[in-house]
Write a structure and sequence with these properties.
Helices cover about 55% and strands about 15% of the residues. With about 375 residues, the protein is α+β, with helices and mostly antiparallel strands. The chain has three domains: about 110 residues, Acyl-CoA dehydrogenase/oxidase, N-terminal domain (Butyryl-Coa Dehydrogenase, subunit A, domain 1), CATH 1.10.540; about 100 residues, Butyryl-CoA Dehydrogenase, subunit A, domain 2, CATH 2.40.110; about 150 residues, Butyryl-CoA Dehydrogenase, subunit A, domain 3. It has a four-stranded mixed beta sheet, with helices on one face. Strands 2-3-7-6 form a four-stranded antiparallel beta sheet, with no helix packed on it. A two-stranded antiparallel ribbon has the order 9-10. A hairpin with a 2-residue loop joins strand 9 and strand 10. Helix 6 runs antiparallel to helix 7. The chain binds flavin-adenine dinucleotide. Flavin-adenine dinucleotide binds next to strand 1, strand 3 and helix 11. The site of flavin-adenine dinucleotide has 20 residues, from strand 1, strand 3 and helix 11. Its cofactor is FAD. This is Acyl-CoA dehydrogenase family protein. Keywords: FAD, Flavoprotein. Belongs to the acyl-CoA dehydrogenase family.
Length: about 375
């Protein structure tokens, strides 16, 4: 019997795992060490139909449920969270265009993802991280186009992206815009705040917009509704971050367990010490519990019920578990766990970085807290038994 229960159709999960083991895992250490955007792997994902899983068939995608997308990201995250976040940036762009983009925008960009289009999601600025209610980047509309000016920071996948989804201030509130990289006035550069110790998929670059002009239909959703649009979209991508976190927790668990079952101390295998077994028992229970919450969040998205609550809970729990499990994995492996050429430090660094990127733990708790505060008192009681 397999250690991990499959929460999706077994043949789909196996094809995701096969892809992750064949094309992602072998390059994971190099991508992390050299801080590289995984261009070849993203292209390979596209060739396998995995760069447009959520995109409906009419736009050239696979038209999968969100549960299946979660299962894909769990498998990729187990192999390399850096590749996972590269594919997640693409997902963010697809999903927002699909849900609120103009039909002309959908027809123009969605089919390109199946061919390997790469994207970034650019909300953060130097002076606006958790708080993006107002921004310094500005978008102004005239008769021909929108013109964007400003600078975005910390942009994941920015070295590889062909398309940027940008949140900018307009005279009527925030707006979301699709900006192709080849637009005159668009450039990226790595700054002293671009290199992270975890989730390394190329520097998290600065994106400069200097008189960048884009067509009117490249506004995504309504002007003034930008915050709502990007936050709703983050509910989806943060669930994928949760999936990757639990994937890397699984991998750290499996590899450290294999190590202690073979390593000897005091004439016995390290695993045979009861104290060591307790670590694994606790980690297994935490991973199993977090996976249940993760797939509950996936279903909540597919069924469109309490999405904000469930996606926030899933990321909170999966990141917490991933941090616990990856730290324990280092501990039980002793000095080997701390070696730069053992994989455990990467799992730990990636797990820690997931506690900040894509919704910090504090902001997620605020979201769940607000949800609870909105409930009427009679909603707090359990449903009466029929
Ligand atoms: C690896 C990585 C990748 C990233 N990729 C992208 C990307 O692709 N696109 C993008 O736009 N951004 C990206 N970011 C930026 C990310 O979204 C921000 O780092 C995040 O929103 C937090 O902002 P900040 O770092 O400015 O922290 P700050 O806003 O300065 O917050 C500092 C601390 O205060 C806490 N805090 C803030 N507000 C509250 C509050 N109301 N209540 C309690 N605590 C609070 C935060 O949780 C944090 O712990 C990335 C970040 C990382 C680490």
């Amino acid at each position: 019997m397999a250690l991990w229960r499959e929460f999706e159709d077994a043949s789909a999960v196996h094809s995701f795992r096969e892809f992750a083991r064949t094309h992602v895992q072998p390059v994971a250490a190099e991508i992390d060490r050299d801080d590289l955007y995984p261009t070849d792997v993203v292209q390979r994902a596209a060739e396998n139909g995995f760069n447009a899983l959520i995109v409906p068939e009419q736009y050239g995608g696979a038209g999968c449920s969100f549960r299946r997308v979660v299962s894909f990201f769990e498998e990729v995250g187990a192999a390399s969270a850096s590749v996972g976040i590269s594919l997640n940036s693409n997902f963010q762009a697809q999903n927002v265009i699909l849900r609120v983009g103009a039909e002309s925008l959908r027809q123009r960009y969605l089919p390109q993802f199946a061919q390997g289009l790469k994207a970034s999601y650019a909300l953060t600025e130097r002076n606006h991280g958790s708080d993006i209610r107002t921004l310094d980047t500005r978008a102004v509309r005239d008769a021909e186009s929108w013109e964007l000016n400003g600078q975005k920071s910390f942009i994941t996948s920015g070295t590889g992206a062909d398309l940027f989804i940008i949140l900018a201030q307009t005279d009527e509130g925030l707006g979301v815009f699709a900006v192709p990289r080849d637009t005159p006035g668009v450039s990226t550069f790595a700054s002293d705040r671009s290199e992270t110790f975890g989730l390394r998929n190329g520097p998290h670059v600065e994106l400069l917009l200097q008189g960048a002009r884009i067509p009117h239909d490249h506004l995504i959703g309504e002007v003034g509704q930008g915050l709502k649009v990007v936050v709703r979209n983050l509910n989806y991508s943060r669930t994928l971050n949760a999936a990757m976190s639990i994937g890397l927790a699984r991998m750290a668990f499996e590899e450290s367990l294999a190590y202690v079952r073979q390593r000897k101390a005091f004439d016995q295998f390290v695993y045979d010490f009861q104290g060591i077994q307790w670590y694994f028992a606790e980690s297994l229970a935490q991973i199993d519990a977090a996976r249940l919450l993760l797939y509950e969040a996936a279903d909540a998205i597919d069924e469109q019920r309490d999405v904000e609550r469930h996606s926030s809970e899933a990321k909170l729990m999966c990141c917490t578990v991933a941090n616990n499990v990856t730290a324990k994995a280092i501990q039980v492996c002793g000095a080997y766990g701390t070696m730069v050429n053992s994989p455990f430090n990467r799992y730990w660094r990636d797990a820690k970085t997931f506690e900040i990127g894509g919704g910090s733990m504090e902001v997620l708790k605020n979201t769940v807290g607000r949800y609870l505060g909105r409930l009427n008192l009679d909603q707090l009681a359990a449903s009466p038994v029929a």
